[in-house]
């Protein structure tokens, strides 16, 4: 038994902002993936995943049937027979490990499911996002449903606001280009819930709320527009501003050992760093107009290129 593959995702723009209705842009990242499986001789990891699926199935049983219902009998039988989620997506890295699992379970066990093949109207996308949000809340306490949506559709998703999302296309990559989007491994995992908690606490201060609205969201929206329209020059101007705002106001979300590197990027313009997901660990996203320069400046780290300009 082996299910279809579901990929990781990268939220290029919109972390935290989309909670407050900024634009966002999420793209599938096919380097990491996962699938539902069964093995005759399960590994320790497979056994752990199977245990986690048991708890997840119990949670799914109690979801509002009007929203979504599952073929629980088959799901529980498969879990009892040792099914697990075989995934190369690192957990706690901000690239959607639980999202891929949610997409895989919905794909196989949901009754009356909305399929990728039908005409995906905005209403259907929002309905899927709502279902996935409820399903993924089991892992994060509160979920927007975007990660599973991205994984399920395997398409870039443009978030215009919380209740206005659409699948989109992004400019094709320039494989000979010098510029790149890359991932930087912080070497530590991050927990989503505590980071979101810090953000929500900060949002109680008027000064922070104003900064989010007038700086953070403004630059995020501009980056999304620039990226989709291929305005690379303008994009890097806005990225520098965004990187600066995050450095000044989202320090707890940036692992301490990266504070210096973050600042160095802004000062030298060799690269700009931003959060990938909720931060606190996992991957950090980097953007550079000259990959060779960025590699030299970050020579102690392994850069994984996601997209070429």
How does this structure look, described?
By secondary structure, this protein is of the alpha+beta class. The protein folds into 2 domains: 6-167, Ribosomal Protein S5, domain 2 (2-Layer Sandwich); 180-308, Alpha-Beta Plaits (2-Layer Sandwich), CATH 3.30.70. Helices cover 44% and strands 18% of the residues. The chain has 10 helices and 9 strands. It has helices spanning 44-61, 72-80, 97-109, 122-140, 146-153, 192-202, 206-229, 232-249, 259-268, 291-297, and strands at residues 6-13, 24-37, 84-87, 157-161, 164-167, 180-185, 272-275, 283-288, 303-308. The strands form 2 sheets. Strands 1, 2, 3, 4 and 5 form a 5-stranded antiparallel β-sheet that branches. A 4-stranded antiparallel β-sheet has the order 7-8-6-9. Strand 7 and strand 8 form a beta hairpin. It holds the Pfam family GHMP_kinases_N. This is Mevalonate kinase. Residues 83-147 form the GHMP kinase N-terminal domain.
Key phrases:
single chain; 309 residues; alpha+beta; Ribosomal Protein S5, domain 2; Alpha-Beta Plaits; five-stranded antiparallel sheet; four-stranded antiparallel sheet; 10 helices; 9 strands; globular
